[in-house]
Amino acid sequence: MAIACASDGSAGLAPASGQGALPLPHDEAREGPREEPREEMVTVYIMGQACRVPATATIMGGIEYAGHQIIRGAGCREGYCGACATIYRVANDYRVRTGLACTTLVEDGMTLTQIPSVPAGKAVYSIADLKPDVSAIAQTYPVVFRCVACNTCTRSCPQDLQVMDYVQAAKRGDISTILDLSYYCVACGLCMLRCPAEITQPLVATLAKRLYGRYLSKKSPELGERIAAIESGAFDDEYGGLMAMTPEALSRRYYAPEDDDAED
Fold first, then answer.
1. What is the CATH number of the domain that holds 161?
2. What pTM does this model have?
């Protein structure tokens, strides 16, 4: 996408003039208009093309500032969904680095590209046919046992998770530890991308969470009561009212204070 930019990367804007312009104060009329401090800019290389972007921008903000429309590789924009996995290098450093485009700040001389999707072979299984132990790992993701404990996965993780540790827990069949260590995984796939053993770590973590939820988690009597109430139709009228509301009314209801009992 071609965009017109000034030499410093900023958009070229003409000063206000004519009937809509405001008169300058006496001092400014004599000394000339005061210059606003210019925003610091840096050069980053996006898909090999040099672009000038604000130094305070995230990688995602820099990509969009440069005029690119992100069609894939953007979701929550808050570091929760893992859709914006990015690999990059910084100036005078040979290492390939990883991060999320929505939370990683640009650096002068950064070269980057996004990885919107990392291929991974998802095992097909019925959770009812599995046991919450090492046999489930062996049946679904036997590649886990190829782990050489190089810790590349941990170093690649933008969430700072101890990925290698939960892979070792998977080799032992310790489902609870896998759950604890992988709880904040956003499935960006960067660990899979760097793993020399080609392990699909986020998919192993997902399996462990499902096993824990079915077999190991403490049962909540309140949850059972609420499910029974839903199945009995106790909330059908309320659901029907919500479904009949316009998007604007739903937005007002969603953002209304909790103590606001007003009905739309």
1. 1.10.1060.10
2. 0.70
